[in-house]
Amino acid sequence: MTDTQAATTLQPKATCPHCWHIFEPHEVLWIAAHPSLRGDPRLTVYDYRRFLPTRFTVKGGALDEMGAECTQLACPHCQLHIPRLSLELKPWFASIFGAQATGKSYLLASMTYTLRRRLPAGFSVTFTDSDASANKYLVGFEQQLFYNPHPDELLPLKQLIVKTQEAGDAYEEVKFGDKSIQFPRPYMFTIRPQQGHPLAAEPDSVSSMLCLYDNAGESFEPGRDSAISPVTRHLVESSLLMFLFDPTQSLPFRRKLAGLSTELATDRPLAGDARQDQILIEVANRIRRFKGLRDTDTYDKPLIVIVTKLDLWESLVPEFRTPSPLIAATRKGSAALNLDRIEELSHAIRRLLFELVPEVVTAADSLAKSVTYVGVSALGTHPVRHPTVTDPQGQHVWSVKPSDVQPANVEIPILYGLNQQFPRLVPGGRRSSSGSRSAI
Q1: Tens digit of pLDDT for each residue in 254-276?
Q2: Which residues, at least 6 apart from 403, have a Cβ–Cβ distance to it below 8 Å?
Q3: Between vectors from CA 87 to CA 214 and to CA 114, what angle results, nearest 5°?
Q4: pLDDT digits 0-9 by tens, 295-318
Q5: Edge-to-edge, what's the strand order for the sheet holding 50-51?
């Protein structure tokens, strides 16, 4: 079954990806289409009005009060736009977070670009945009890095950050009476088994809509999450937590990397107080508060600690010298996660972190029962100084040629999360006693 041939059976209950309100499909609001029907009292004067329809076309589309056919839906609670797939697929929530200036934007662009290729080609699973408008900023990042019309020209990395900041806020504001509440704007992707997958004939059992929440580091400062700005409440809804740790923003790591004579590791000032474990501690506190857990309770969802800039520090982990893939072929020729290798490298990375930044490991262990460490490189190449572009301090900015970008392991966190949640959709493999591989 292809993406366009997907079943249209509605879920008995739907969940809004913005405010997490649970509702029945018949309660969904429609968004007016006639130009005269702008100005929604809960949103802005530019937004089309939301309404509960009483008239429909023969094809099932709603008609607004001016008779225009409508195609877009909205949550009955927050009234923000939601894709129709919200009514058809089970949601799979995932959260990615980290301190300021840890390269999250580069990682997300590399991650989604790679997943669009790796899942269909290796696992016979589609990974497509559920809502083009919701993902447009991330797609813009992908365009700059992987579809750049000038792939051999140096691209200043700071230029990408500026473009993202100019693209708009990551939150949407909704009026409830005299209060305005901010809700996060997630990236949304459709995940389905395609032709050739063992579950292609029964896609409803494993198909889902991935809602990926990306918070700025400032969102985790004390007091930033409140009743009028619940921008991190998605943490308790998420089936997968991903924490970005940037070695170049850690003093002990920088001292270790300085011995490798790499300017990349130590050239820029530390962001904030460089205590990245504080993000984990704040996330743990919020999850316990939101869920009413005790201080000694740990979260029952998997946490993946993503250690970025692998190309700078992998020589510090001897296990990386062993050539063994994280994704291997099964006897049937399809792909499976090499769970043995993922766990071997996880233990090795954990040992390195415990040696240099034990507070990060301690904070991770106190947050979640299951913690996996993955080393990734969003760019897979060493940036170079741009010969002509400088920052406000007069420093030549770091840049890359898009043609040189070769991400490493960036898809593993999501693939591993899918394996834990839907093992029949994205299988894992382990080495048998005979030395061969078998899919779980």
Answers
A1: 888 877 655 555 555 555 445 78
A2: 151, 152
A3: 40
A4: 888 888 999 999 999 999 999 999
A5: 50-51, 29-31, 73-74, 81-82
